[in-house]
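hiii, so i know i said id send this last week but things got crazy w the move. better late than never?? heres the sequnce for the chain we talked about at the cafe, plus the structure i predicted for it. fair warning i was half asleep when i ran it
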Amino acid sequence: MPVASNYTSQSVKQFATAVLKGFGCNENEADIVASHLTDANLTGHDSHGIGMLPLYGEQILDGNLVPNQEPLLHAPMGAISVVDAKRGFGHRMALLALDHAMKCVPEHKVAILALRDSGHVSRVGTYSEYCAARGYVSIHMVNVVGHAPIVAPFGARESGFSTNPISMAMPLKGQAKPLLDIATSTVAFGKVRVASNKGEKVPPGCLIDEQGLETLDPDPMAQSRQGSLSAFGAHKGSGLGIFVELLAGALSSTDTVATMEHLPHGVINNMFSIIIDPSAFDSRKAIEQRTEEFYNFIKSRQPAVGTPAVLLPGETEHQNRQQRTDHGIPVDDETVRQIVDIADRFKLDPTAINALLTKAS
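okay and structure toks below
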């Protein structure tokens, strides 16, 4: 079974930055993407952390991801902004698109963004945090096109859409609190990949095989996309996943997973975002007070037997960020090997790249 080591967050970011520069990203883009990926690892979302680098490298080699791209920022129509990312790195494209859309907020008190044809935007909760830091409520939905669907709709034995995540947050003292960041599948595909790299099984209820029967083996899905992920909550998660596809794909973009061509290593994202200035409803102070009162009310509920505490959305990520900052980010050897291998294909020195990782004390 592959071994995992804990590395300092600073060295993980240095490692990712060096690889991204090797991919052709300039200093600014490499820093944005590496920061995003490292923070995903810090929050416990290893599925969206530096383990994504091999896929990004493959996409660049295939011509489906463009370093240092400049997005096309269409002039807003009222409160609606459309941005074509032209397959640039989604981590940077999404921030530029949100900045563009938020210029509408002072006039309209709301902005609606359609980000099209973007490279992988990774952890969607990042964008809820970005908006909350500016005092805005936000909702973000992302569909995934460019490859075959991997999530089975309720009642189906075949896949019909992808993991189609949703994130939303309330701003409280400059933070996203609470913060909801979920896939509409029971688990994200990246968590299946991480389980495969670690030689572990997936939890029950996450995967079905090609016969439509439950399986705990992540390898067929992780390595050759055989079988399907399940939607969370049966028809409820399936219904949300379908509407994410419609809002981010049919409404905001030009393709859904039903129509877009399948690309080698293709992961193309479209994002539908709603950004709201709470001051349109009441004073920010009053809204924050009500938010905090409700937050504390939920926290005061007696935990169920065997549960140490009642957690609100986003608390687990906050706790993980603190714990991993103090004790290091666990990265399994197979993931490191895959990253070093793709770096080698871009003519980077594998030994020098590997040496950038420093184990946490």
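btw The chain has a mean pLDDT of 95. thought thatd interest u
miss u guys!!
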